[in-house]
Design brief:
623 residues, alpha/beta, Rossmann fold, 6-stranded parallel β-sheet, 5-stranded mixed β-sheet, 19% strand
């Protein structure tokens, strides 16, 4: 074993390598991205690692590898599981050959997602076992356990993390060896083909194996009941606290230093139930826990999954214990938890039970300097080419009825003032089809669909085909910055580079322009969004076209590309009108007094501000 400071996602990657994973596929999405990237960086040379075009493709790649006896892992965030749900649900019925682990990172908060869904619910819906680690160390250890359960019971297995486990850091004990397995190869069998009659049989088999797995989980080494006394030596109360995931870490910190958070007036005996495998729930362990307490409170992110399971155990085993948590308001039902939140909710719970709570300790300071950091709203970067794209469409469509359908990516920030150019944002690829639905109902409007280059390949193409096939005329704006910027600049089919760094195909990458033309979109224009006049002219051209038409606004991401240009403001010529600031919203422009100024540490030299200055006070210089 070697000790290594690792974030949770890195620990999962090292766990997969140690477990002998053979194939890893995925689609980038915060907070899951670093798992696949870390495996790629530490690849011993015989692991196939790829960014797939979307999560559905990644799930099917992993399933196919598993059919051949390989150990496979697929990585995604919680909304990615929605995209992969068709093959994922069917895989529970079909079964696996080699172990198949589905890493899903949930995003409580949410910090960077459009939903706050709980993958543990998806596990019970699909009847697939799920592991829920409390720390990077547990995340590392659970990977091999998940592969073992997957192979023993011929089922995919979910490894579910949340943001603070995925991105939290800790010293992790990592094996310096790798499990060696022989890949059996594909064996033809009717079991790989899911006919309706076979699906019925498979469902019966799933229902038969779940209680067996639940019994196994009742003795699983990472599930536990801990006994402790808080507030004194002679307890007069017996309470139970049930938790899982990072919430266990928060609870343990509060109980370990209870006097810092809650001043108790009397001693309390606490049974602490730690659930590492929330589905299928370890009923036997839960029953043992319930039989030793009078009341229970549950702490977990996000839904009351453990809470529901304990209530069900009480009913099945006729145990008369009150179980509290999210359902009755003892614990908040949405958002991230924290040490302070657990302390406050635990104090309220104890007080409502009649246990003496003298006071709550003051909330810990948010920073070591003793002050709250100011809120910084998200904004498009200085020099971001999406700003020019949005601005050109806005100016060209001024005074005309138009709707602007957005998508998932950096460009969602086009909704903010002063651009105000995103009217809708549902899920990846939905801009293309949402715009069609709006056009059907409001045919006098021009309906624009804004989509990024990576998202176009992930989930936009199908919607374009639908537009042509059904005659739903829309105007497509592809914001091509040649990367997957939102999640860390991963490659995609349009970049011409694979995850390994090798070229994707010869002689050129997949062409968005050729794909659109092949589907039937016409015209398809390619324009630099930082050329304001040309961009406006292109918008006017596609608006006049009597069909679905597209512009590919192509310019590299400012955060990735280097620039040797800088905007300069001539203070003598500047009239202080503020148009450059008021209309563009670029963080590199500000006005501390009567004149506009440029933050040279942010300026990319895109020249957009120079092109719209009414008095020509801004110039672009080489630096």
């Amino acid at each position: 074993m070697v000790k290594r400071l690792s974030m949770g996602n890195e620990a999962i990657a090292f766990g997969a390598i140690a477990a002998g994973v053979n194939v890893v596929s995925g689609y980038p999405g915060t907070p899951s991205t670093e798992v696949l990237e870390t495996i790629a960086k530490n690849n011993p040379g015989d692991i196939h690692v790829e960014w797939s075009t979307n999560e559905k493709a990644a799930m099917e790649i992993a399933a196919g590898a598993s059919y051949c006896g390989a150990r496979a892992m697929v990585t995604m965030k919680q909304v990615g599981l929605n995209v992969a749900s068709d093959p994922f649900m069917c895989s529970a019925y079909i079964g696996v050959g080699g172990g198949l682990v589905v890493l899903v990172a949930d995003d409580p908060g949410p910090i960077s997602s459009q939903t706050e869904q709980d993958t543990r619910r998806f596990a019970s819906f699909s009847k697939v076992p799920v592991f829920d680690p409390i720390s990077p160390q547990e995340a590392y250890e659970m990977v091999s356990d998940a592969f073992a359960i997957s192979e023993e019971f011929s089922t995919p297995v979910i490894l579910r993390t949340t943001t603070r486990v995925s991105h939290g850091g800790a010293v992790v004990d990592i094996s310096d060896s790798r499990e060696e397995r022989e890949i059996a190869g594909f064996e033809r069998s009717p079991k790989w083909i899911e006919f309706p009659r076979r699906a019925y049989q498979a469902h019966c088999e799933i229902n038969e194996r779940l209680p067996i797995i639940a019994e196994r989980f009742s003795s699983y080494r990472l599930n536990a009941i801990e006994e402790l006394v808080i507030g004194g030596d002679d307890p007069t109360w017996r309470i139970g606290i049930a938790c899982g995931g990072v919430s266990y870490t928060y609870v343990r910190e509060v109980l370990g230093e209870i006097s810092k958070f809650i001043e108790l007036g009397e001693a309390v005996s606490v049974s602490l139930l730690k659930i590492a495998t929330p589905f299928p729930f370890p009923d036997d362990l839960g029953a043992r826990f319930l039989e030793g307490v009078d009341n229970v409170i549950c702490f977990e992110e996000l839904d009351g999954v453990i809470e529901d399971a304990l209530i069900a155990v009480c009913g099945k085993r006729h145990i008369g214990v009150d179980v509290h948590g999210k359902h009755d308001g003892f614990v908040r039902a949405a958002g991230e938890s924290s040490v302070d939140a657990v302390a406050s909710e635990l104090a309220s719970y104890l007080s409502r039970l009649g246990i003496g709570v003298k006071r709550m300790a003051a909330k810990r300071e948010a920073s070591s300097d003793g002050f709250e950091l100011p809120t910084r709203p998200p904004v498009l970067c200085a020099g971001c080419p999406h700003r020019g794209s949005f601005y050109a469409v806005k100016k060209a469509m001024q005074g005309r009825k138009a709707f602007f359908c957005g998508d998932i990516g950096c460009y969602t920030l086009g909704n903010a003032q002063p651009l105000d150019m995103v009217d809708t944002c549902l899920c990846m690829g939905a801009d293309i089809t949402i715009a069609q639905g709006m056009k059907i109902v409001e045919p006098d409007a021009t309906c624009f669909a804004f989509i990024g280059d990576s998202t176009f390949f992930a989930s936009g193409i199908t919607g374009v085909v639908n537009s042509i096939y059904n005659g739903n005329e829309i105007k497509i704006i592809v914001l091509d910055n040649s990367t997957t910027a939102m999640t860390g600049h991963q490659p995609h089919p349009g970049t011409g580079v694979r995850m390994s760094g090798d070229p994707s195909r010869e002689p050129t990458p997949v062409s968005i322009e050729k794909v659109l033309e092949a589907i039937g979109v016409t015209p398809v224009l390619t324009v630099d969004p930082n050329d304001f006049d040309a961009a406006c002219a292109a918008v006017n051209e596609i608006v006049e076209a009597p069909s679905t038409a597209a512009i590919i606004f192509k310019s590299p991401c400012a955060a990735k590309a280097r620039s040797n240009r800088m905007a300069r403001i001539d203070a003598q010529r500047c009239i202080g009108c503020g148009k450059c600031i008021r209309e563009l919203g670029c963080p590199g422009l500000f006005k501390p007094g009567d004149k506009a100024m440029i933050d040279e540490s942010l300026c990319y030299g895109c020249s957009l501000c120079a092109q719209i200055c009414p008095v020509g006070a801004i110039s672009i210089e080489e630096v």
